[in-house]
Amino acid sequence: MKIVVDAMGGDHAPGSIIEGAVMAVKECDVEIALTGLSGLIEAELSKYEDWMDLPIEVVHAEDVVEMHEAPSKVLRGKKKSSIKVGLDLVKDGNASAFVSAGNTGAVLAFATFTLRLLKGVDRPAIAIQLPTLKGYSILLDAGANVDCKSSQLFQFGIMGHSFAKYIHGKTTPDVGLLSIGEEDSKGNEVTREAFHLLKNSHVKFIGNLEGKEVYQGNADVIVCDGFTGNVALKISESLAEMIGENLKLIFTANWVTKLGYYLIKPHFIKFKKMVDHSETGGAPLLGVNGVCIIAHGGSSPKAIKNAILRAKELVEKKMNGHIRDDIESNLMSGKEPFWKQIKKITFTPGKEEKNSGISQDSEEDKHH
């Protein structure tokens, strides 16, 4: 299996990217194609004495996408970038998957226009893995779509269900919708419509989830728009960093705390591994017609290696085929046609009453 890696993407490219690729080919049965400026890539590879014997090839790409560049500008002006060249290899069947730690917006744009979308999918979604009290959950969308329609949130739920079932091994994944309250009537118009669509689908929909439930593990799949998901992700990263720094100060305060750390060190390392994003490597972009992994911009070599392994897993387990089947089974099920469900929800009498219910709830909350 050949996996394309964007050697020019990321804050520590190309060094960390190439080191991670070398680690991957040495640890598992995979071939790597590194896209980018061939001179820089080969100079970096020359640091590894045995690289010529490794299943690594260099594919030249003359353009480099910087992390700050606008996706729309990149899409028009850098059609020979390491991202586009890599995705073309996947599109043409010369590689099985693509991994990049580069500009997320650019990867999203190029992947959508190059690989196209799976049938029945309106927009792709970034799916991130979150540690919980009960194992792991998947949250999507984590930033690909700032604004979403109810039908797109419905599709995210189906894609997340497929991922949790075939990648996390959940027989019947619990799917929840992130909202401002557990009641059916809570949320905005989009989430309330999405609630009914998911409720009438074949997935095991457990209803709305409040933010406090995200890390409790009550749902295997958490559905939200990309704006909400990305804010939740960044807040979580900031909180984890704050906790980590404070623990360092506590454990290094005096000899008693240092002794305490020594005693709990094995358990602490285990917990750290559970919450370390480099262990999963990257987030799959679900919904495009090909396997695409988006890694963190500051990815370490270990993170890049694990992103490659995750890409390999998605290919081997035929993730896109399962998503395609799940989307089709919902659209073609014996229940009401999808368009009729949307029509019924959109034109249901008393919709204004439900909308006003939010403000009424808010007023009641104020009095409590």
From TrEMBL:
InterPro entries: FA_synthesis, Phospholipid_synth_PlsX-like. The keyword Zinc does not apply. GO terms for molecular function: phosphate:acyl-[acyl carrier protein] acyltransferase activity. Its EC number is 2.3.1.274. GO terms for cellular component: cytoplasm. GO terms for biological process: fatty acid biosynthetic process; phospholipid biosynthetic process. Coiled coil: none annotated. The keyword Iron-sulfur does not apply. Gene3D superfamilies: Isopropylmalate Dehydrogenase. Keywords: Cytoplasm, Lipid biosynthesis, Lipid metabolism, Phospholipid biosynthesis, Phospholipid metabolism, Transferase. Residues 346-368 are annotated as: Disordered. Homodimer. Probably interacts with PlsY. This is phosphate acyltransferase. The lineage of its organism: unclassified sequences, metagenomes, ecological metagenomes.
